[in-house]
Amino acid sequence: MFRFLLSRLALIVPTFFGITVIAFLFPRLLKGDPVLLLSGERGVSPERYAMLNEQFGFDRPLIVQYFDYVWHLLGGDFGTSIATKSPVLHDFFALFPATVELSLFAVTFAVIIGIPAGIIAAVKRGSLFDQGAMGIALAGYSMPIFWWGLLLIVIFSTTLGWTPIDGRIGLRYFFDSVTGFMTIDALISGQRGAFSSAVSHLILPTIVLGTIPLAVIARQTRSAMLEVLSEDYIRTARAKGLPPRRVIGVHALRNALIPVVTTIGLQTGLLLAGAILTEHIFSWPGIGKWMLDSLSQRDYPAVQGGLILIALVVMVVNIIVDVLYGLINPAIRYRS
Amino acid sequence: MRKTVALFAATAFATLISGGALAQTLVYCSEGSPEGFDPGPFTAGTTFDATRPVYDRLVHFEPGTTSVVPGLGLAESWDVSDDGLTYTFHIKPGVKFHTTGYFTPTRDLNADDVIFSFTRQSDQSSPWYQYSPGISWEYYNAMSMPDLIASIERVDDLTVAFHLTRPEAPFIANMGMDFASIVSKEYADQLQAAGNMVQFNQMPIGTGPFEFVAYQQDATIRYARFDDYWGTPAGVENLIFSITVDASVRAQKLIAGECDIMPYPNPADIAMLAANPNIVLEQQEGLNVGFLAYNTQQAPFDNPQVRTALNMAINKPAILEAVYQGFGQAAINPIPPTMWSYNTNIQDWEYNPTAARAMLEAAGVTNLTMNVWAMPVSRPYNPNARRMAELIQADFAAVGVTVNIVSYEWGEYLARSQEVTRDGAVLLGWNGDNGDPDNFLAVLLGCDAVGGANRAQWCNAEFDALVQQAKTVADQDERAALYMQAQEIFHAEAPWAPIAHSVAVMPVRSNVQGYVMNPFAIHEFATVTVQ
Amino acid sequence: MTDATVPPAPTPPRARSPWPARRKAIGEFWFTFRQNRGAVIGLVVFALLILIAVFAPLIAPFGFDQIFYDHFRTPPAWQEGGVPQFLLGTDGIGRDVLSRLIYGARYSLLIGVVVVVLSLLGGVLLGLVAGYFGGKTDIVIMRVMDVILSFPSILLALVLVAILGPSLMNAMIAVAVVLQPHFARLARAAVRVEKSRDYVTSAQVAGASHLRQMFVTILPNIFAPLIVQATLSFSTAVLEAAALGFLGVGAQPPTPEWGAMLAADREFILTDWWLATFPGLAILITVFAVNLVGDGLRDALDPRLKRS
Fold first, then answer.
1. ipTM associated with this complex
2. Which CATH class is domain C52-69+85-307?
């Protein structure tokens, strides 16, 4: 196990350097100019331009800038955002909990509905439920989620008034952020109604963000179940007269879930890395929206830092998935 | 340290709300996150909206107008020397800074605070000049303050004299702008001693009607009424900015009562909002202009005949309807009609595609293909440049001119459109800073601005001389005469097609009273009450 | 990060079959494919879309950029205020929505084809080289693929478009770059399995060149998984390009690309429902149809290939 983990970690090092190269080169490849962006419609004089350029350090040789950049990264310095003038790391950690909270809700939603739907569809293969559920799943998989989100807002928030329109909690609630998770902080605060307000704000974003993972998980569960159900030992178990509930619930499910767990993990990683479209539509103050805003404002340091941090999140989640996979399925350790 | 401060503030705030005072809360659905809470280094109106509650300036504009009246701001009065080179401000006595969980002032506002508020932006040896990495003083520089202010003198505890290098008529108006907000030197000193200067931009202290409570990044800003305010106390106890980037979403929240007031509605949503019995629309003609700037140094647009012909091909009523949804008026001159010195004698170019085509042919222009640049962002002076460009594309096609629409990301757009060798005509616009015509005519059309904010790359000696002269004259009537003459030249030369002056609309819930719109598109809430 | 997710089971090596045998294989494939009702429906819809795209100028009632100054935002024909000549209404500057949707089909299909071709060529080439030569070449290529896969695809595409500039072509390039590692991994894994098989070894012994071995001997045997992946990529490409258009960095006006149409008239979402509804529906139908076909292909070509 330890060696397995080590070999996984060893793979990270070159990838990480690849990522720093991309992040470093990004602003140098852009045509937009942050100095000019800063000055808006009124423009800037050449002298002042040169001064600001020097201040941002864009006048030194590229390779010097790169090593300087990596050196600072290794020291935990991800630069200072041009837009907010605060450290990029500070901005990232201020916004990351919102993304984590939303992602966890979305994945939970997808798992709670997706796995039972997949199992039933597999067991009742060819039934109306199977066809209907898989049709819906494929439609969910084909959904342009930016449109889906707008549609749900117009129907449920504007027309019916059932759900709040945006934000993370009602404005009447105000308490300190302890964990950064609005639902947990609401409980800690003890203010009446705060928790349900936080949850109601999560409903639509959760559905929108959970749609594609839900479709993927349902389809994956179904096909994994089908495969397992056709295996010899299941047939033997059935032939021996074990009750079907037991065969499916215990023997088949345990084996079928192994690939599904991997899928869930990878989906979580992707969501954590930036629910860009969902956060954009619901003005959810998370890192996906932050990256989008930083890109459109040409906030180089924020984009660079964000790229690296997001890639790190994806890599860490993938390692956790690998390890989990290794734990539940010992065969894999020897294969790799 | 910061944690406990926030905790304290939160508890205080929670008590306020649980005391049944939610009706005393005004929720403003703002259109974006502030860049910070120090108005000095920033240029965005969104940031100034967030700093206005906290800070005052020496000079305040009369609410809803562009005129300055002594006594409204922190300066009780001011004197100007006969040569126009020295401005002496007399500061109000007994003005208090905010007392919050993170700062307790030991003294009232005095000359040191005023001087510090400006020298920190100009004195490169001051640690405050670079108190946060990458900080720069864009507005201070853009308003030419470094060249203009020779020195600032502390006459006594409550008197400050600004010595200028040249007479500058708009100087007083400039002192009413947000970069000239007065900050607390005592607070700055404390932070410097604590080695935590960055906090100056995160947790502000000022003399304004509201004190800062908390900021949840990209979500909400909370303020509480400052009870020891020197002027009329604010009308509500709590002020909350609920940051909502999308205009449709803001409208939905206003309808749902999740906010009380919102800026920049989608023109398309205005009719729907107007039909809502709980919502009142406040309107004000904006201090702005949206235009199409030709590159006057590029053939065939170096020919005024060609520019005039194209101006005659543009169907402005269609643009006003499709782009501004009726909330705008056709622009004739480069300055808006609400501004003094606006020349009412000038008639707009007649919309006449047939005559325009004939003029183009007479100028020897046939089979012309040109670029029209469409801004990628929505601005008050041009809510939808892409749509405007598509309409202009169709208009020009009708006179035999083929248009390619080009667009770049906003920063790149601003940069590339400044280039003298730029290919094509650019859609852009301007929002006034201080209500002075100089702020439009010199900034946007002066010879100095070629290769910069003068997107037409237009340098007309006669026009430039008039505008330069007007700047040094003190008498407003005399200045107005010069500016009117300059507008005549503008019309004859047509370096732009002026498109529209937009009307600013603020939808407000009907239980909100006393909101006064500000012509500079800054949103202020001190006078507002909620029933 | 890891190849554990997609264990692309390579098809068993078919000996290079004589024509009648191939025809039989195709017949078998078609038989299996026809069993899948969804796939057939998807195929029919997709064929219709192709016809619409090809004959857009004949079908569309108006030009996609034709402005009617008296008809800004006219509702669909069946609704109050609608006009029969504009069946699905008009947009913010008085252009017929139906005509724009019809022309828009051209762009969506174009995006799908261009992106799939670019990513397929790039990915397969890299994957073949990596898998065939192994060693350092393999490591370098696959680490680069890892780097690309470490970012969420839409984020990387946004970054690439930021660098290249907003346009439809650049959006397609960006999406292709983001999608090609999937092809590369597939091709590499398949090559590594095929390489050890007898027919490759014998070709090697017979003195076939590297190129010949890669393209003539090995490539035809990994067609099946590549075709399935290509179909999946087609739908992903349409979705991602539409998302880029929606975010304003894809197709530029007056191009009637569906995502860009949605973005351009998003401000009317509260007042004029048809402007945001129809383009979204068009994207959904197209992607759904392609995915139905993809499922059918997967089942017919290789039941063991799984979608991840």
1. 0.85
2. mainly alpha
